[in-house]
Amino acid sequence: MSSAGLGLLQYCNLNSYGTKFILGFSLFMGLSVPQCFNDYVVTTGNGPVHSRSTWFNELMLVIFTSSPTVATIVGMFFTGRSDTTTKMSEQMVGDIGGGSLST
Fold first, then answer.
1. pTM for the full predicted model
2. CB contact burial 15-47 (16+ within 10 A = b; e otherwise)
3. What values do phi and psi take at 14, rounded to 5?
4. For the segment 5-60, what is each residue's pLDDT rounded down to a tens digit?
5. pLDDT value at position 43?
6. Helices 17-44 & 54-64, crossing angle to 10 degrees?
7. What backbone phi and psi angles, to 5 degrees, belong to 8?
8. Where are the alpha helices (DSSP H) in the chain?
9. What is the DSSP string of 17-45?
């Protein structure tokens, strides 16, 4: 399963620093957050989310103890942020340039 996902990296622009950061940070968080949640459950006997609803506590525990889910959420968040930043900077360059280049 992971080799199929890593095979899709051939379509990414790995020359971009932002892409490398998103990939590395997503993998790091995907490994560390579930480990923290699992350690918390082992030491206390219940999950780190404390609300009045047990189904919500268990739902958060299931989501955040899954490494692929955490990595996907982090990657999608940062990819969405980088697309917005790129569009905003392209728009600002166009505004500074004075509009169209045609005479």
1. 0.70
2. eeeebeebbeebeebbeebbeebeebeeeeeeb
3. -80, 5
4. 778 778 888 888 888 898 999 999 999 999 999 999 999 988 899 899 999 999 99
5. 92
6. 130
7. -75, -10
8. 2-7, 17-44, 54-64, 67-96
9. HHHHHHHHHHHHHHHHHHHHHHHHHHHHS
Contacts with 34 (C-beta within 8 Å, 6 or more apart), sequence order: 64, 65, 66, 67, 70
64 in Cβ contact with 33 (< 8 Å) = yes
Q: Stretch 57-74: mean pLDDT, rounded?
A: 93
Q: In the structure encoding, which two tokens stand for residue 24, read together?
A: 């590395």
The label of the residue with tokens 């990296």 reads 9
